[in-house]
Specification:
The chain has a three-stranded antiparallel sheet. The longest helix has 32 residues, at 54-85. The chain is α+β, with helices and mostly antiparallel strands and 94 residues long. It has one helix and three strands. Strand 2 (23-31) and strand 3 (37-45) form a beta hairpin. It comes from Streptomyces pharetrae CZA14. This is DUF1876 domain-containing protein. Residues 34-57 are annotated as: Disordered.
């Protein structure tokens, strides 16, 4: 079976971080081709006995924000399927 691709689409995803010596907060944003945006947040906290490694906090908080972003996109898609079809569709699983 040969799959033919017809349309190239790009999504722009941004991650921003705020951090202090113990906490990291991440904000994720994806801009979709229709102009809509989906936003999410993630957090990480460093235990007082752990070494101060800001990059690790960013990775954890960023991963949590991206995970939430993925779930919000799945929910959005599910709602759009239901709206277009006029029925309740099966849940979309990761």
């Amino acid at each position: 079976m040969v799959m033919t691709m017809h349309t190239a689409v790009g999504w722009h995803v941004e991650l921003e971080f705020k951090e202090d010596d113990r906490h990291t907060e991440a904000a994720a944003l994806v801009r979709l081709p229709d102009g809509s945006e989906v936003r999410s947040h993630g957090q990480a906290s460093r235990h007082h006995t752990d070494a101060n490694q800001p990059r690790v906090g960013e990775e954890i908080a960023g991963a949590r924000a991206l995970n939430e972003l993925a779930m919000r996109l799945l929910t959005k898609a599910h709602e759009e399927i239901d709206s277009a079809s006029g029925r309740i569709s099966h849940p979309i699983h990761v």
